[in-house]
Specification:
6-stranded mixed beta sheet; 1136 residues; alpha/beta
Length: 1136
């Protein structure tokens, strides 16, 4: 940043700082005015810059050999002259422009390279795109902002926004980005920045803690302000939502919080959380006044805190991992171990020699071999670490390398089952409260007198040094990182010793509940259950070796992708399985943040309601986000056992929600606790899924997959093999009727696959039912599956309905749950596993568990997978072994099924995400796109189509016959409208937005609507209210129910997929990114946004705080998601 004659001249770096935190700009100006000093340079900044310059020069030399007509813009000239020279070079048509200088009013910057393309622009039959170099291998959002800024300035010169932009990283890999996927986010940030600068001297802003603080050059300045003001954000364990609620009630300092007479209900803060931060404030305030460090020992919940501390053992290991951030999972390059050898404590490091998969695997193998040998010698020892990272990282490594190194998973599973990993952070946070401002290891070291001497003091610095080491192999960087890791390991040891000394005598040492049985013989490393039958690990290792031998020059990439499917379903289940046990370590309060739970439930009455079948226990719980539903197993998260069934969930705002648990008489010795957390059960068995997958992999090894041609066509991304249609040709004419064309294509599939993509309101269920009936009429055996019983049932109901209309009789069967029987006309519900007589049926339905049954192998002519965007590619392959032809139906742009497991390559995708690659819609030669929506009117359809469907979706004329007369000026009676709102500190609940929704709802009710020839008044069933969180949905529902009783339709978007309403109101709730309770990729999900808006037939109104769009991002994926949200700003209204 420069200030010349009171005018600001800014760069992309300044914009990055502003978006991350407005106060950085205030500090930058103070620095330019010499009012404050800046932090010392971060680790080796100077060297890093020098390396970056050399990297840039190297690529200049390479590019000059490729582009003969090149020019370098000399940096010695003034900025305007450099810009003029750059524009002149562009007008002369140079192929390569080095150090191009670009200006857009007061915004400016230097791009490493502009490279000429064949796309026409104002310059002529050519234009330019931006290429930039970065020495790092860790491409970050700030780098994308930089090249987007250059592309934006370049676009204004050539009157054409470049289609693509490029970054060349430290490994010389070229990364390509679509400019349109980032430009709206950039423009919004830039507009707000330019608007902010002229009024900065008058702007009253105060620094707040945010995720950018640890990266900021001005951290010491803000720290000092907070210190001087004794600001409330210094209270350990407080979050932004709590701080804002306290400030609204004139509690701004630590001292005021420690002395406040306010109670939790006054502040709308959970009582337990409020008591915790108030107690913490008292401790910190006492230290501020006396200068004495304080520590108090808490009385932890039974089974938590000190109750989890094992008795010290001579073989105990103190463990720390250093990882380097990547897009999928961190690269774990250093394992540090501190333990006793021959009675003497020693440190051992396992360092990855190179930044590659092989090196990571080698040190993981070393680690597992060490653990195996060490725990054979010390069976009562434990592995101590601080925070959950280490345990999670080893799990992920074990899963990633299980096919090549199955022993890793066997040994680690054994350690996990025996509860050998001990997270001291969990014990400390549940047992101790200190006068420190956080509970980081470095903050509490003073209490056990640990002093650090290593050069690196922060984890962020170790990441920078490792990034540097990758490129330079500088030995000092390596030594510094290892020293930092060693100190973490030794500090963990000293902390354990401190906890041992302070453990109350009344609390026994932790002992694993189930006694470990000692085997007379050495355990089999591959867990064989039957002596003559290969174990899962042996089967997978054999498959891995066979696929490795199958490799050749032409298929090596394909084979590597297939290897990722070995043990796919077992790997997919592991995170969910271990999460069940992780929850048992957490308190009820901590589990309120876990969406897989209904946590902290308090028993209302000791005496249950007695019925003929059993007992009903009622529990009250606080507002929270949860996924559990009525009818699901009631699983006690702390006892790790099923106790009954969730009978009902009644949501009553605020914090008066009730869940009823039914306990059958058949359950013996069930004692319901006074405090209960309900969680997810352990996942179901999936061995038959992997057996089906293995069957396909074996066939590929032996026969190149010829027995499963449809799967091979799909995995090789071939065009569908269809009789009489040449490969690469358009499959249908989208201007003509689609169902009959689609039916003919499916009938003519030649042991191949087809994708049918159905956007909102396009009738994919109707179309699918029609096609399936025609296939059955032709004597074909058809299977129907999906991820959920509900989706399968919906399609079967549509099939029966159309069959009745066509007077077509058929015999079908559905593998169903005993609790979910339906009164079918042609379909029989089968709830047992009895053998099938295939001559009896022409339609077979069930989840993937039914189709992976070995008896189903190649038994069907067709398999239809509905909602295929929610079905993992691995599950698709396993299910598809049941049929000759595969039809995938769905829309990957609607709600997806997130994977918890960290799979590699194609294995991490759904079937539709895999087939469509980076496309939003299915290419015309690869499948059928249902392009007419009967739901969305022209204006809503236009937004949905351009934002999510490559402008291929059009409204049916029937949508023109629907209208509403809302009288909500400036909100019109057709289209999408964004209503801005201001609030602060809102996380999962916003009263301001709830008020606005309630008032708007009241104005809409009773207004006129027209649908075809029908006229009427808008009622509660015609309006849908959507929020991201249950807490806000409950908040709004309670307000509306007072007037409209139980007719209101309010919920999260997951509740409404497949539904529609005349008017949709969307409350995004959260004040800003720092207040988000979940990751940005959930909140800003394109899929969720698409589904929310596309429920509306006539009008969609979305309400959110514009501050949500002004925030730094942690990943490039987050940037793309926020960019989609920024497009909504075009629909802004001044509705009050």
């Amino acid at each position: 940043m420069k200030i010349i004659k009171d005018k600001f001249f800014i760069s992309p770096s300044d914009l990055n700082n502003f978006v991350a935190c407005k106060y950085t700009i205030k500090n930058e100006i103070k620095f330019l005015n010499k009012e404050i000093t800046k932090n010392a340079d971060r680790v080796n900044d100077k060297l890093w810059k020098e390396m970056g310059i050399e990297h840039e020069k190297k690529h200049h030399k390479i590019l000059k050999t490729k582009y003969k007509k090149s020019i370098e813009i000399k940096s010695a000239k003034d900025e305007q002259s450099r810009f003029d020279e750059t524009v002149g070079a562009m007008q002369k048509g140079y192929d390569l422009i080095y150090h191009a200088y670009l200006i857009d009013e007061n915004f400016r910057g230097e791009a490493d390279f502009l490279i000429k393309t064949n796309t026409s622009s104002d310059l002529g039959d050519y234009s330019y795109e931006v290429y930039d170099t970065k020495i790092t291998r860790n491409i970050r959002p700030r780098h994308i902002t930089q090249i987007t800024a250059y592309s934006d300035m370049l676009g204004k010169v050539q009157k054409l926004l470049p289609e693509k932009m490029y970054l060349i990283d430290g490994s010389d890999e070229k990364h390509t980005f679509k400019t349109i996927e980032y430009i709206d986010l950039f423009n919004h940030g830039k507009k707000e920045f330019i608007k902010f600068l002229p009024k900065i001297s008058k702007e009253k802003i105060y620094p707040e803690k945010c995720s950018y603080c640890n990266l900021c050059d001005w951290k010491n300045v803000c720290d000092q302000i907070w210190e001087n003001d004794n600001y409330i954000n210094l209270v350990a364990g407080s979050n932004k939502s709590q701080i804002e609620k306290l400030k609204k009630n004139k509690v701004r300092t630590v001292e005021q919080l420690s002395n406040t007479k306010l109670v939790a209900t006054d502040l709308k803060i959970n009582a337990e959380s409020f008591n915790k931060i108030k107690s913490q404030a008292k401790l910190q305030e006492e230290k501020r006044k006396t200068g004495e460090d304080k520590i108090i020992i808490l009385d932890p919940d039974y089974g938590k805190g000190f109750y989890k501390l094992p008795k010290p053992d001579e073989g105990d290991v103190f463990f720390d991992i250093e990882g380097f951030p990547r897009m999928d999972r961190p690269f774990e390059y250093l394992h540090g171990l501190y333990y006793k050898e021959k009675g003497k404590l020693q440190f051992r490091e396992l360092w990855a020699k190179n930044y590659d998969k092989l090196s990571e695997k080698v040190i993981f193998i070393e680690l597992i071999n060490f653990f195996e040998k060490h725990f054979q010698k010390h069976p009562n020892a434990h592995i101590y670490h601080y925070a959950p990272y280490e345990k999670r990282a080893v799990r992920e490594l074990a899963a990633a390398y299980s096919a090549e190194f199955p022993k890793g998973d066997v040994v680690n599973d054994d350690l996990l089952r025996k509860e050998k990993y001990v997270d001291l952070f969990s014990i400390v946070s549940q047992s101790i409260r200190t006068s420190e401002r956080d509970m980081s290891l470095k903050s509490i070291e003073k209490f056990y007198n640990f002093k650090r001497t290593a050069d690196i003091v922060k984890a962020d610095d170790s990441v920078i040094k490792y990034d540097n080491w990758i490129t330079t192999k500088n030995t000092k960087h390596k030594k510094d990182i290892i020293s930092y890791n060693e100190e973490d390991c030794i500090s963990t040891y000293e902390l354990r010793e401190f906890l041992v000394k302070n453990k109350p005598d009344s609390i026994d040492w932790f002992v694993k509940k189930e006694e470990i049985k000692k085997e007379d013989k050495e355990p089999n490393p591959y867990r064989r259950k039957t002596p003559n039958k290969l174990s899962r690990e042996e089967v997978e290792l054999d498959l891995n070796n066979k696929l490795e031998k199958k490799k050749n020059k032409t298929n090596k990439d394909f084979v590597e992708q297939l290897k990722n499917f070995i043990g796919f379903h077992w790997k997919s289940n592991k995170p969910e399985f271990w999460e069940v046990f992780d929850r048992a370590e957490k308190t009820h309060l901590e589990l309120e943040d876990d969406t897989e739970c209904i946590a902290n439930c308090v028993l209302i009455d000791d005496e249950p309601e007695i019925t003929n079948e059993g007992s009903i226990y009622s529990y009250r719980f606080n507002d929270q986000n949860y996924k559990l539903k009525e009818g699901k197993t009631a699983f006690d998260a702390h006892q790790i056992k099923a106790v009954g069934t969730i009978l009902s969930i009644e949501e009553n705002f605020p914090d008066k929600n009730v869940v009823e648990v039914f306990v059958s008489k058949r359950r013996k010795n069930v004692e319901m606790p006074s405090l209960l957390t309900l969680g997810n059960t352990t996942p179901p068995q999936v061995h038959q899924h992997d057996q089906a997958l293995n069957k396909f992999l074996e066939d590929y090894i032996l026969n190149d997959g010829k027995n499963y041609k449809s799967i091979m066509d799909m995995l090789e991304r071939k065009c569908p093999d269809i009789k009489d249609i040449k490969s690469g040709s358009k499959l249908i004419n989208e201007d003509e009727e689609l169902i009959s064309q689609s039916t003919e294509i499916v009938k003519n599939l030649n042991n191949s696959y087809l994708t049918i993509q159905g956007p909102p309101g396009t009738g994919k269920t109707y179309s699918s039912a029609n096609i399936i009936i025609e296939l059955m009429k032709a004597g074909k055996k058809v299977g129907v599956t999906s991820n959920s019983h509900e989706a399968i049932k919906t399609l079967l109901i549509a099939i029966e309905k159309q069959a009745l209309e066509q007077n077509f009789d058929f015999n079908g069967m559905r593998k169903a749950r005993s609790s979910d029987k339906y009164d079918w006309k042609f379909i029989q519900d089968i709830t047992t596993g009895k053998p099938l007589n295939f001559s009896d049926y022409s339609l077979y339905a069930g989840t993937s568990w039914f189709f992976v049954d070995p008896r189903m192998n190649k038994s069907l002519d067709y398999l239809f997978i509905d909602e295929a965007g929610q079905v993992a590619l691995g599950t698709t392959i396993a299910s598809a072994t049941a049929a000759k032809n595969l039809v995938l139906i769905g829309d990957q742009m609607q709600l997806s099924q997130p994977m918890r497991a960290k799979h590699e390559g194609y294995a991490k995708l759904s079937s539709l995400d895999f087939i469509l690659e980076d496309n939003d819609t299915i290419p015309a030669d690869k499948g059928v796109f249902l392009n007419i929506t009967r739901r969305l009117n022209n204006k809503i359809c236009n937004y949905i189509s351009t934002s999510f469907y490559d402008s291929r979706l059009s409204p049916d004329p029937i949508t023109e016959t629907r209208s509403v007369n809302l009288k909500l000026d400036p909100i019109k009676d057709e289209g999408l409208f964004y209503v801005p709102i201001e609030h602060s500190g809102c996380s999962q609940r916003s009263d301001e937005e709830a008020d606005l929704v309630e008032k708007t709802y009241n104005k809409i009710i009773g207004k006129e609507f027209k649908s075809g020839k029908t006229k009427g008044k808008i009622s509660a069933k015609d309006i849908m209210v959507v929020a991201p969180y249950n807490a806000q949905a409950n908040n709004i529902r309670e307000r509306l129910k007072k007037k409209f009783k139980d007719d209101v339709r309010v919920g999260t978007i997951d509740l409404f997929q497949g539904q529609e309403a005349k008017v949709v109101l969307i409350s995004m709730t959260t004040s800003d990114v720092e207040s988000l309770p979940r990751h940005k990729d959930f909140f800003f999900s394109r899929n969720r946004l698409n589904v929310a808006i596309s429920r509306a037939e006539c009008v969609a109104i979305i309400i959110f705080n514009e501050n949500l769009l002004l925030a730094s991002t942690n990943s490039i994926k987050e940037m793309k998601l926020m960019n989609s949200f920024c497009k909504l700003l075009k629909f802004k209204t001044n509705f009050k």
